[in-house]
Amino acid sequence: MKETGNISIHTENIFPIIKKFLYSDHEIFLRELVSNAVDATQKIKRLNSIGEFSGELGELKVKVSFDKEAKTITISDKGIGMTAEEIKKYINQIAFSGATEFVEKYKDKGDEQAIIGHFGLGFYSAFMVAKEVEIISKSHQEGSEAARWICDGSTQFEISSAEKADRGTDIILHIAEDSEEFLEEFRLKSILEKYGKFLPVEIEFGDKIINNPSPLWTRNPADLTDEDYLKFYDELYPFQEKPLFWIHLNVDYPFNLTGILYFPKIKNEFQVQKEKIQLYSRQVFITDEVKDVVPEFLMLLHGVIDSPDIPLNVSRSFLQSDSNVKKITGHITKKVADKLHDLYKADRAGYEEKFDNIGLFVKYGLISDEKFYERAKDICLVQDTDGKYFTLQEYEESIQAAQTDKDNKKIFLYATDIQQQDAFIQSAKTKGYSILKMDSMIDSHFINQLEYKNQDIQWKRVDSDALDKLIDTGNKLEILLSKKQQEVVKSTFESVLADPSKVVAIEGMSAEELPAIVTQNEFMRRMNEMQKNGGNGMFGGMPATYNITINGNHPVVEKLAKESDEEKRNALAKQIADLALLSQNLLTGAELTAFIKRNVNEL
């Protein structure tokens, strides 16, 4: 038998190829060919299980080998095999998917999801690296004759009889000069481990099996222990700190989705995530760029997602947004929120301990995903400066009596740096106020989101204004200084500060408060913080301005007002102002040096 002919390319087939399967990464060829070999193996197993093939299955594994001298790479399987007619049907008609036809034929007889073949054009990826490709195949059908197909990458092919003892297919790639990098053992091994680490059929390379055909996510969660999950995490991310907990995904309707998502300890900063979520399709690795499958905040998690229902753009292994993807995204978000609820309800104390490590993740989710906000807002915790945790509702109820202003708004006071803002915190505590610790890098965004969602609550940083003005109950203390004394004090401070970005005002405050405090407008400061943390606040680029609030009822300020010697008055005002600036880390450079020398000289 010998036949020559032209490969059939039809417009109805070529356009989907151009749209979906234009490869740019040449190493994909090995994923595609090995996946096809696994596919053929799964098919023979399926036919055997339903009684359509009664022969001996034998050892079912896919073998990958290479010959550096001959410049060949061979992928061999003992799968379903092909007759000469099937080769012409499946290989010569580009983009005709044998897997699709097989699934359609046997869809009512079992688990068609065991067939990988959604890669369509996979075989022809071989010509990205090969100048010539051979197929030697023998069908599982009784009495079949082996066939040999060869093509040099043009539309011409040759098919003839061949000698092959065993059922299955050998794909032999004659590697082109510009692709000889793939004739290195390390290169091939790294590709196989990247894409085939969890393929459902054993992959042999260099006399070793390089994959785990039964990864944890394919097994029944009821049969697994915590130790199993931790061991698998080590397999995915060697030498990493143990995760806090995990979610096992297992859905077969209305879409197929399996996987395991791990919650790592998330530090109080966004780092480049090297340990990303890995996306698989029937155990074939696709990508670790999963931004179109999971919401952005879930990309802080680790683990594996496997779904045959995610459409793939193989040219860059990116994902297209369609209804299935949206359903899968929604399901993952719900499962994560449900897991958090379960942990909260089962062990509140344990949940609080974990919140230090997952709080950033939860807040990010509330900010960035509306559905997650609705599901998780009731189990998001905040912590006060004494270390006590509250849900948002619990905290609102706890401060309602003491921290409601004249407009009936509940004021949430918070600190971003407990050590730096200690003086303000202690002053607030003397009034019976509670202060929250909000020191993560996204808390300014988080606070804005909560204010937007609840118009009855206003957040104020504890050092953003004079204490009596932070929670304005309408009761103002009178300033004991006369108007003339107030003018003297104000002009003296403006003179020694000599800085238009420092705005001086005199307020009636308790005599126990500091003589002067430096604050920054809450809104403007938040805008600046958001800008620094990657936000696009329209006011973020404006120069910072500060309010210097002078306590008109403090004995030292009263002393300054009565001082007739201008030089002494200025010196006292300078000392008060410098102390206030120092408390906010705003006294720097030459001004700080002068302050230190001045105080040393007075010892």
TrEMBL record:
<keyword id="KW-0547">Nucleotide-binding</keyword>
<dbReference type="GO" id="GO:0140662">
    <property type="term" value="F:ATP-dependent protein folding chaperone"/>
</dbReference>
<dbReference type="InterPro" id="IPR036890">
    <property type="entry name" value="HATPase_C_sf"/>
</dbReference>
<keyword id="KW-0143">Chaperone</keyword>
<dbReference type="GO" id="GO:0051082">
    <property type="term" value="F:unfolded protein binding"/>
</dbReference>
<feature type="binding site">
    <location>
        <position position="32"/>
    </location>
    <ligand>
        <name>ATP</name>
    </ligand>
</feature>
<feature type="binding site">
    <location>
        <position position="77"/>
    </location>
    <ligand>
        <name>ATP</name>
    </ligand>
</feature>
<keyword id="KW-0067">ATP-binding</keyword>
<feature type="binding site">
    <location>
        <position position="316"/>
    </location>
    <ligand>
        <name>ATP</name>
    </ligand>
</feature>
<dbReference type="InterPro" id="IPR019805">
    <property type="entry name" value="Heat_shock_protein_90_CS"/>
</dbReference>
<feature type="binding site">
    <location>
        <position position="82"/>
    </location>
    <ligand>
        <name>ATP</name>
    </ligand>
</feature>
<dbReference type="InterPro" id="IPR001404">
    <property type="entry name" value="Hsp90_fam"/>
</dbReference>
<feature type="binding site">
    <location>
        <begin position="97"/>
        <end position="98"/>
    </location>
    <ligand>
        <name>ATP</name>
    </ligand>
</feature>
<dbReference type="InterPro" id="IPR020575">
    <property type="entry name" value="Hsp90_N"/>
</dbReference>
<dbReference type="Pfam" id="PF00183">
    <property type="entry name" value="HSP90"/>
</dbReference>
<feature type="binding site">
    <location>
        <position position="169"/>
    </location>
    <ligand>
        <name>ATP</name>
    </ligand>
</feature>
<comment type="similarity">
    <text>Belongs to the heat shock protein 90 family.</text>
</comment>
<dbReference type="GO" id="GO:0016887">
    <property type="term" value="F:ATP hydrolysis activity"/>
</dbReference>
<dbReference type="GO" id="GO:0005524">
    <property type="term" value="F:ATP binding"/>
</dbReference>
<dbReference type="Pfam" id="PF13589">
    <property type="entry name" value="HATPase_c_3"/>
</dbReference>
<keyword id="KW-0346">Stress response</keyword>
<dbReference type="InterPro" id="IPR020568">
    <property type="entry name" value="Ribosomal_Su5_D2-typ_SF"/>
</dbReference>
<keyword id="KW-0963">Cytoplasm</keyword>
<protein>
    <recommendedName>
        <fullName>Chaperone protein HtpG</fullName>
    </recommendedName>
</protein>
<dbReference type="InterPro" id="IPR037196">
    <property type="entry name" value="HSP90_C"/>
</dbReference>
<feature type="binding site">
    <location>
        <position position="36"/>
    </location>
    <ligand>
        <name>ATP</name>
    </ligand>
</feature>
